[in-house]
Write a structure and sequence with these properties.
Blueprint lengths: L2 E6 L6 H8 L6 E12 L6 E20 H11 L3 E9 L6 E9 L14 H7 L1 H13 L5
Antiparallel strand pairs: 1-3, 2-3, 4-5
Helix pairs in contact: 1-4
Length: 144
């Protein structure tokens, strides 16, 4: 079974949310994506990233995502996002690895708010309702 690293920088960096999307728990390791910036999406609790020097985005990398699970993430991310292969840096030792991540497509960048996205704010204000939203979508078969 082929496994691919996934860099998560938004809601998927929360263990219960990635588990709700793919159907099993994963262990993430802190990682940094250099050359990108993270912004909130207008009227939504989740973010998007775009290439932007000299910014960086902190998140986690999951190294054991199967292709079938990646397809569930593709569905979860939807049309505004495109899957890209990027190089992430592990802050613990500086190791760099290739991983897939989801970048806002150019034609959808008008959805981005001018403000950044804060995972702590998401955790305080949106986490619990968002976990339930994702769980309902999975139960309804919308995530494959």
């Amino acid at each position: 079974m082929t496994r691919e690293p996934l860099f998560a920088y938004g809601t998927l960096q929360f263990p219960d949310i990635i588990a709700a999307v793919i159907g099993r728990p994963l262990n993430g390791t802190p990682a940094v994506l250099d050359g990108y910036a993270r912004f909130g999406i207008h009227n939504e609790p989740f973010p998007g990233i775009v290439p932007s020097e000299p910014h960086r985005v902190e998140g986690v990398v999951y190294t054991d995502v199967t292709r079938a699970e990646r397809r569930r993430v593709d569905i979860f991310e939807g049309e505004p996002y495109q899957r890209e292969t990027v190089t992430v840096r592990m802050p613990e030792d500086g190791t760099r690895i290739e991983a897939i991540t989801y970048v806002i497509r150019p034609r959808w960048r008008t959805l981005l708010s001018p403000s950044g996205w804060d995972p702590d704010e998401f955790a305080r204000h949106w986490h619990d309702t968002y976990v339930e939203r994702v769980a309902r979508a999975r139960r309804a078969g919308h995530l494959g």
